[in-house]
Amino acid sequence: MAKKKGFMTPERKKKLRTLLRKKAAEELKKEQERKAEERLRVIAERCGTKADLEAASTDDLKKVCQEYFDKWYGLEGEMFFLQREVILRDLQINELTISVSDMKGKFIKPTLKKVSKYENKFAKLQEKAAKFAFANQMKAK
User: Along the 141 residues of the chain, how does pLDDT read in single tens digits?
Assistant: First the structure.
């Protein structure tokens, strides 16, 4: 009796792997193209189309500069308000976490910084030296 071969022979496995790799590469390429198109669309939407500056007169250039300045000025103001809103929300979140910890009775201990003993001694010596120098100046007068 002849032994029955398995369905997935090594050649079939190899062929299947290569097909899967090709399919994955195609999908990756399509995804990159889609992302690039989306990026260009968003840039065109936000910044507008590129103005032809080579054949423009000085009045046209002034108008283009004014348009870009107005757009920048509006965006800068919007950014200021968004940053302010973010700061307010951060403060609200902090207050809410404090109130929740108060309700639960769990208090978060702040992390303490390690302070070198030598730095403290050095700072005290500097204070003493400053006092001594001040006292010497007073005596000299």
Answer: 455 666 788 888 999 999 999 999 999 999 999 999 999 998 888 777 777 778 888 898 899 889 889 989 998 999 999 999 999 999 999 999 888 887 877 666 777 877 667 777 778 888 888 888 877 777 776
**Token pair recorded at residue 2:** 């002849």
Contact between residue 64 and residue 53 where contact means Cβ atoms under 8 Å apart: yes
Regarding pTM above 0.90, the answer is no
Q: What is the dihedral of CA 104, 105, 106, 108, to 10 degrees?
A: 120
| CA dihedral (80, 85, 86, 91) positive or negative | positive
Per the structure block, which two tokens stand in for 121? 């001694």
Q: How far apart are CA 133 and CA 57, in angstroms?
A: 70
> CA dihedral in degrees (27, 33, 36, 40; nearest 10)?
-140
CA distances 126 to 20, 114, 121, 122, Å, are: 73, 21, 9, 6
- Paired tokens of 90: 């951060």
Q: How many CB atoms lie within 10 A of CB 64?
A: 14
CA 77 to CA 66: how far, in whole Å? 16
